[in-house]
Amino acid sequence: MFMLDWYAHNNRLKDAHPGEKAVFVFLCLGLCLFFSRETVSLAAILLLSILILFYVKIPLGFYLKLLCLPFAFLLPGCLAVALELPVMPETAVLILPVGPFTLGIGSAGLSLAVNLLLRSLAALCALYFLALTTPFDQLGWLLRRAKLPPAVVELTALTYRFIFILYATAQSIYTAQATRLGYASRCNALKSLGSLAAGLLYKSFYRSQMMHAGLLSRCYEGTFPTLKTYYAFSPRNWLFVCGTVVLLVAMAQFSF
Amino acid sequence: MSNFPYKRQVLKGSIFSGGAFLLVLLSPRAAGAMHIMEGFLPWGWSLFWAAVSFPFVFLGYRSLSRLLITNPNYKMLLGLAAAFVFVVSALKMPSVTGSCSHPTGVGLGTILFGPLVISLISTIVLLFQSLLLAHGGITTLGANVFSMGIAGPLAAFAIFMLGRKLSLPRWLNVSLTAFMANMVTYLVTSLQLALAFPMESGGWAASFLKFAGIFAVTQIPLALSEAILTVIVFNFLYSYNHQELSTLLNWPKEVQAQ
Lengths: 256, 258
What we know:
The structure holds 2 protein chains of 2 kinds.
Chain A: H1 3-9, H2 18-35, H3 38-55, H4 60-68, H5 71-82, E1 83-84, E2 92-98, E3 101-106, H6 107-133, H7 136-145, H8 150-179, H9 186-216, H10 235-251
Antiparallel strand pairs in A: 1-3, 2-3
Helix pairs in contact in A: 1-6, 2-6, 2-10, 3-6, 3-10, 5-6, 7-8, 8-9
Chain B: E1 9-10, H1 15-26, H2 43-70, H3 74-90, E2 93-94, E3 100-101, H4 106-113, H5 115-132, H6 141-165, H7 170-196, H8 203-240, H9 242-249, H10 251-257
Antiparallel strand pairs in B: 2-3
Helix pairs in contact in B: 2-5, 2-6, 3-5, 4-5, 4-6, 4-7, 5-6, 6-7, 7-8
């Protein structure tokens, strides 16, 4: 389930300066959204995919699986954008008469939907680049550098740690229930899932108390001080970021 | 750009063919809470929703930091609450229509932790959902926080309090709360999409109906099954962990009192 996290800790760019990666990703996201042109989106998709597959060395199968994940939202979303209710028959690409209305997909709606699909995919590639190359401690470093209140950053770090603990707990409860035919029928499944969630809540509550007691006994004063980490800037990476910006801005001048 | 090389096609059919067409498109994956995906909103709207959500999250932070002065162990508890909401939203539950769906955990979270704290918690949850599960996104974080972390919980909390005042039976109150949290999240998300993509004829109101109509196929069964699941969770909590639950349930009052 958390393969994304595994790759974040095991890739070629994991020791790169987190600021460089964040600037790169946010520039890609910002330019794709700002220009909102098919050419820019396509260039960003190609560039980021090549980077992820051949430089970061993520297996193709896993990457394709990742790209398919958000289609449950993307397909109906784009379909909804493309649908027009009283569709003009002259510009329509597809007409569906539904009772007294004529639903349909017009050419304007279709081009908007295609644009949206490409833009979302480009933004998704940028998000994956960040998720696949940046381990959580670097994200925490970024959040601290963004001057977020320390309490929020620590809460985020705690959440990150607890997600894995609770997920492992949920998995073992699930296995125990499933071996006792807890998920054999729909009714059983709902009941088992309910007891799983309740048990998980109780366990998390109990664990939080224990953890607090444990921390107090180790002189906890409300903060988790950590050693400062220093990352080295790399001129080559900055050159690459500048090149990407120039490429995307140049692509915005073209259109189909 | 106006002439797409697609063949013009006219499908003649009744409402049935349209419905079947949609179902085939929508059915293959387990549906989850409706988050707007990365890059789907134009940049103006992304910034707008981030600006709208910010004060609420800030209020959540303020109430948290006040609570932390008197009860420092709330940090642990909140971290676990956020992780709990995340893990619950990653569970697969059988949906009433037959396929699977993921619960959102917002209704349950609101009843347990109160609406103000949930806004902060769900910001963190949504951040991790986008980074660990590729569900939602960074540019649409503001919009998703508003629908799942602010509008949904506030509506749910209002319903829960109203139900308490009317002294509804517990199962009815809890299920209504979970149902409303889901429905409001889904309707607000549809509204956000409609505002960003209004139709040429009919404007955003017609567009809202369109988005709400298409996503209803997955979201209404999800809301129903989550209502059932939340009642089951609550019954378990009441019968086995009454003590802990009452400690948790005092939370909203404490948050409001400060």
